[in-house]
Signal recognition particle protein
Amino acid sequence: LTERFSKIFNKLSNQGKLTEKNIKETLREVEQALLEADVALSVVQNFTSSISKSCIGKSIEKSFTPGQELIKIVKQELIEILGKENNHLNLSTQNPSVIMIVGLQGHGKTTSIVKLGKMLKNTKNKKILLVSTDIYRPAAIKQLEVLSKKAKIDFYPSNIDQKPIQIVTKALEFAALKLYDILLIDTAGRLHTDKYMIDEVTNIQKKIQPIETLLVIDAMVGQDAINIVNNFNTNMSITGFIITKTDSDTRAGIALSMRFITKKPIKFISHGESLNEFEIFHPNRIVNRILGMGDMLSLIENIKNKINKENIKKFTHTIKSQNKFSYNDLLVQIQQIKKIGNVTKILNKLPKTGTIFKNIQYNINEQLLFKMETIIHSMTIEERKKPELIKGLRKRRIAKGSGISIQEINSLLKQFNNIKMMVNTIKKGGISKMMKGINK
Ligand code: GDP
Ligand code: MG
């Protein structure tokens, strides 16, 4: 997927304008990319036709290439669908507000409800009570108890001999009596949606009338999410979603489908097993994730600022005259590469950055560059021009000056050739090409 977007990006950055023809071509690839991100087909088709409309006739901002412009529009449109604002919980009822969590077994209901409780307690200073109606697995109630303790939230005990309705009625009475702000109800799930489970949670919902009923969906289920969501959503009133396990290697395209089909908001995202790995849903982040390219635009800006045109000219010029490649040239290059290196550090942090950056990531070994730099600084001008001069005594002097051992200098000098090769790689299609593209 990422590769696809990089390709799209590369293709477009070599063209002058966003024409009807290249929009069409590109959108076909965008469609494919979204399908790979597990976005449902109907959603994808709807999406690309709406994009197509917003693109045609749109003038391109001067600072953008057509590729950037298109990606910008794609992002805006995705964010639009996912809801521009974060969707907060509705807690404006009389206390206690009741929030109920539903979903299939193993999707992360129990974990999420505790995380949510912890978040509400810590950020909104709410007095929280947790209760479980999962009477089918004794371990499930225990699990909630253990996690509650860990999160320092009050737990209302229940047991497998009680009926779910009984449990919630009593818990609500208790919560009201003890002036809790929020009662969080964890429910039982099953492996597949079935009538019995839906009936049970629907009955609880009717009895208790929670202000929020959140459906938990595991991001890893992919396309199947739509069936699960529809099953719950048509049988009971769902007020929003929690998407879990977004830390797994999924593109979370289901978020887009869920929102598009149900028009219900995604309220929270869970991205790990630890209790803090939970946050309010930000459309922006999930869009970057679906597109798999991090915040490409701001990164490109960043690279642009770090490397000015003049330097690129020098850089490519030196590469071209490689036979005369000396330590002085290398020094200039190292300084350039280090600047890019800072950017690749950011890149590396992002989810799966595009192939256009792979060359650089692969080639930059910062420590090596730093040592090379130090060694070169300890060389005389003569030595920098003629690497073959560096033997015995000179080597010892450089070692002393740079504080790097002779053995290491030997091995690093050998790497000089490797560096040359690295520069070669860059010349062939890596950095210089990329930089030319973004500095148009
Ligand atoms: P429930 O059956 O729906 O209540 O699901 P649980 O809350 O018991 O979670 C099932 C498993 O998924 C547990 O092992 C959790 O630790 C794990 N889990 C839940 N949320 C996440 C998440 O966001 N990321 C990861 N990696 N694991 C999660
Ligand atoms: Mg559970």
Summary: The longest strand covers residues 97-103. The domain at 97-291 is CATH 3.40.50.300 (Rossmann fold).
